[in-house]
Every structure is written in C-alpha cells, then in structure tokens.
Amino acid sequence: MTVSVLSSEAAPAADLTAGQRQARAVGAFLGLAIGDALGATVEFMTPAEIAHANRRRGGRHTEIVGGGWLRLRAGQVTDDTTMALALGEAILEAHGRIEASACARAFDGWMRGRPVDIGNTVRRGILHFRNTGAVHVPESQDAGNGAAMRCLPVALALAGSTPARLDAAALVQARVTHHNPLSDAVVCALVRMVSALVCGAGPEVLLKEAASLSEVHPELRFRGRQCLNPSGYVVDTYRAVMQALVDTADFEACLVEVVNRGGDADTTGAIAGMLAGALYGESALPERWLVALDPAVRASCESQARRLFAHAPAATLSRARH
Ligand code: MG
Ligand code: MG
C-alpha cells in the first residue's frame, strides 16, 4: 500500500477532550519551530546539494544542527517562528482579538529587534506602516509566503470559529504586509486547516480544504510533478508542503521529506511542521528534535500555544466542530 496521510494513525476524533485539543495546538506551534530550525540548515540549497552534503548520513538532512547561509546556532529559529511569536503576543495582549493596528505594531517592533532574517515583502510592508500608519498594504502581484508562514496564532486563538470569522482574522494579519489573491487564499486555507485539526478533524480535512482551494485557484493543485527546490512564491511553498504532508504518514517523515526538497526549506518546514503538529499532536514530535530546539523558543511556543488556545471556542466546546 502506498504511504499516505490517509493510512496514518492520525484518526479522526470528533470527541477529543479540551486537553487533547490543546495538545494539538501545542504540537502545531512546536512543529512550526522544529520545521523552521530543521529546514534553515538547508535553505536555498538544491536537493542534489543537500544529498551531497549528507552523503555520509544516507543522503538526507534529518537533524537540527544549525548552520546554513544564516550560520545559525543549533536549535535557533528564523523569521518564520519569531514573527509568529510576535503576532501571538499581540493577540494575547488584545485578549484573543486579532486587531490590525496591534499586528502592525508587533511586526514593527519585531523588525526593530533586528531579526536574523527578513523577507523583502515583509520589510516593505512594515516600512509602509512605519511611514504612513496604514495597517494594510495595497493589492500587488507579490505572492510571497511571508503572511502564510506566521499565520498560526490566528488559528489557535480562534480554533473552532466559523470559516468566515477565521478568514477575516487571517486576512487582518496577512494584509499588514501581503495583499495578493494567492497569498490570501493560502493563508485562509492554512488557518482553516489548523482550526479544524485542532478541533479533532482527521487528515481528510486537508484534502477537502485543498480541493476547495484549487477550484478557485487551479495553480494550487498539488498532485502531479514533485515540487522540488520550492521558491518563496506561496504557490511553490503550498504545493511542496501539501505533497510532503499527504505522501507521508507521520510527523518526522513529513518534515524530512519537505526540507530535503531544499529551496525555501525553513518556511516549507515551518508550515509543514505546523500542519503535521496539529494533525499528529504534541506526542508525535520526535524527542531529539524537541531537545535540540532552543530552550527559550521551545518554552515560548508551548506557553503561547496554551494561552492562545484558551481564547478559542474549541477550548470550551463540549464536542468538536469541524
Ligand atoms: Mg526564515
Ligand atoms: Mg525562508
């Protein structure tokens, strides 16, 4: 039988307890950080370069060791995780609400802290806010993955909300820096997927959301030719993540698969880690990766996930709503 997320042990569980839902929320945030730290080592490398660099280790990059073009410490994360943490803090300060001005101020403060890396569209959007006070950028052709990589705190704070509410909140944070139909569509789909998974949905929800998405945007179909060396274009990112997620049956296999495709590997790793963490739960995260993660980052992700989720409808629902 072909290995697939549908043959995995991530069974649908509509009657998860609040504690089990919280464990999925924590799994998502730690998964994001793990994927970022794991993928950053091979960011901008091709699959062939990764295989060559790991030729004495079976040709696969599988450990959190730092390095990469950013010369990271082992366990250090990049903008994907630190922007999500900045957004999460802003949501917590607003008692679970997603407010555009609070998001913009949080991103501005994050950039003033001299992050280890920053995407061009993110920088432009934050400077636009700094210079004009506007909390959203005009629509553009720029479909980078920067708004998608940091969307998790919205999904956790609103898990179990209606799709309309999730979409509206997802776009509030996204449009501080990104305003493009493809970026918007992927951000909304990711937030809806995480919300459903945290509420107890099984892997089928990923395929359902993906099918709706590709009806509107056929370029987001992910079946077919493997997306190798994915760029920062949100279509590449999404396709690589979905291929890795659907064609594997556990958290570790999914992350190893996606980061070894190279390209924007910290971001594909982060987004795949977020979805796989929400699907398989905190207990599925390999201990060696948790131990390797920067301890302060690990603590912040765990703590934020719990506090954000406490605001969510799913934290108090007696039965999960998909
Ligand atoms: Mg990054
Ligand atoms: Mg990246």
Largest sheet: none
For this structure, what is the CATH class? Mainly Alpha
CATH architecture: Orthogonal Bundle
Arithmetic mean of pLDDT = 95
How many structural domains are formed by the residues?
1
- In total, the number of strands is 0
- What's the CATH H-level homologous superfamily? ADP-ribosylation/Crystallin J1
Bound molecules: magnesium ion
| Classification by helices and strands | mainly alpha
In sequence order, what are the helices and strands, one letter per element?
HHHHHHHHHHHHHHH
Ends distance:
28 Å
Give the structure's gist in a few sentences.
This protein is 57% helix and 0% strand.
Structure description:
With 322 residues, the chain is mostly helical. The chain has one domain: ADP-ribosylation/Crystallin J1 (ADP-ribosylglycohydrolase fold). The protein contains 15 helices and no strands. It has helices spanning 18-40, 47-53, 79-93, 100-112, 120-132, 146-149, 152-157, 163-174, 181-199, 204-216, 234-246, 251-259, 265-280, 287-292, 295-309. The longest helix is centred in the N-terminal third of the chain and has 23 residues, at 18-40. The protein is globular. The structure holds magnesium ion (MG) (2 copies). One magnesium ion (MG) binds at residues 43, 264, 266-267. Residues 43, 264, 266-267 line the site of one magnesium ion.
Topology (elements, then pairings):
Layout: H1 18-40, H2 47-53, H3 79-93, H4 100-112, H5 120-132, H6 146-149, H7 152-157, H8 163-174, H9 181-199, H10 204-216, H11 234-246, H12 251-259, H13 265-280, H14 287-292, H15 295-309
Bound molecules: magnesium ion (2 copies).
